Amino acid sequence: MSRLIVVSNRVSAPKDPAAGSAGGLAMALSAALRKYDGLWFGWSGETVETFKAEAKFEDRAGVTVALVDLEAQDVDEYYNGYANKTLWPLFHHRVDLTAYERSFGEGYERTNARFAEVLAPLIEPDDLIWIHDYHMIPLARDLRRLGVTNRIGFFLHTPWPARQLLVTLPYHRRLVESLFDFDLIGFHTREWMDLFTDYVVSEAKGDVTGENGLECFGRQVQVGVFPIGIDVDGFLEARNSTLGARTYDRMAASAVFRSMIVGVDRLDYSKGLEQRLVGYEEFLHKNPSMRGDVFLLQVTPISRDDVDTYQDIRGRLDALAGRINGEFADMDWQPIRYLNRTYRRDQLAGIYRAARVGLVTPLRDGMNLVAKEYVAAQNPEDPGVLILSRFAGAAEQMGEALLVNPFSREELSDAIKNALTMPLAERIRKWEALMKVVRDTDVSIWRDDFVQALMSAPRVKELPVFDAA
User: What is the DSSP letter of 221?
Assistant: First the structure.
């Protein structure tokens, strides 16, 4: 029987699944790897003075992981540079923040070739290889150059950019061409897949073949839409755990009969945090009678703090939250509680459950699982209301949320008031429809659908069937 090899920039297989802090994606992939005696390969997070083409192996709760160290120059050019300063902003339509430096591209190519050099000897003839995200777009090409003929799939966890923006990237054609060394490319939404198809057909002069095929650069690839979800049962278990229940009780007591709005996002310009605070400020201006009855809890863990852009946004958010609190706060009420720290999954479940409104308003997002977690955490008899950006991938599925344009402070303000005043019957109706979506797109369904599609993607050589059930 085939093994499944998962490849990602960082290996997130949990060392202790019982700890409750591991994400649903890590839990789902770890379960598959344990079942099929698989391997999780990626960067160790460590740097060395001189790169060595060798992997370090660990056992993490029954999952074998293979880790490779990188040189500091690799990390600076490949990860901090091309991945985070070039591809990330470009894929989120922030061309104004995109850094086009030749050394970044060279480091990206070099590091992917190094990953391939270490990974190729570990691959057995019948293995399935599943590569994740924008960090490793050229990896299939580099593996093919080393003689790897296995089925290789790729899943993009971010949006795909519009063709008119992608062509601003130097060597954009080479980047897209390298994707045609995969057998299957997966996207969260049809919009992202259609944008990729538009580039292939309009810019690279390729063709659509059959229902889900593309032909270009002398090769063919299958594409598909695979909307990722959360580990529903695992999240409900976390919500109902001792710590989840205790966190809910703490938040309910802390609210002191006020309605809580919650936002949970890592610090990133794609999340629309400044626009969110401005929209909330507009709500406070327009609804003075509701000021003391509501507050916003914004949880924003710091990420990529060594990148200048993220340092700048942190300073602006600190100033904006301080200004809003300074203008509206009273002796017994603060309109914004702004926290720069990370919470466990069971704690977040308790926080979500206590919130009357979930505010998920990214400017552009591949999916956004906070929206699904918020829905799953709710009390079915008295659920909160989800406000969701129409530019999040989740909006394609979650039409019963209050969909908003996060660039409009007036829309945000109106949606907050609507959510806070929505009748119970309407809240229950919306929640039931949204919870069905959450159930129907569980992360294990996403995983199995992708693996089965990879196994059935057209190949010259047939490989043994991989049972992903």
Answer: E
Identity of the residue numbered 210: G
Looking at this protein, which amino acid is placed at residue 61?
Answer: A
Alpha-carbon distance of 293 to 22, in angstroms, equals 34
What's the distance, CA 334 to chain centroid?
A: 31
Nearest to 406 by CA among 354, 351, 353, 365: 365
Six token digits for residue 209: 């073949």
For the cut 80, the answer to whether the pLDDT of residue 46 exceeds it is yes
The CATH number linked to 155 is 3.40.50.2000
Helix-helix angle 370-377:345-354, to 10 degrees: 60
**Number of structural domains, the chain?**
2
The span from the first CA to the last CA of the chain, in angstroms, equals: 14
Among 111, 91, 110, smallest CA distance to 169 is for: 91
- Let me know: does 393 contact 227? Beta carbons within 8 Å: yes
Q: Which two tokens stand for residue 17?
A: 């699944």
In a shared domain, residues 217 and 330: no
Active-site residue list: 157, 365
Residue 465 vs residues 1, 30, 110: alpha-carbon distances, Å: 8, 20, 34
219 and 239 part of one domain: no
Tens digits of per-residue pLDDT, 128-175?
999 999 999 999 999 999 999 999 999 999 999 999 999 999 999 999
Q: Report if residue 467 sits inside a domain.
A: no
> From CA 66, how far away is CA 420, in angstroms rounded?
49
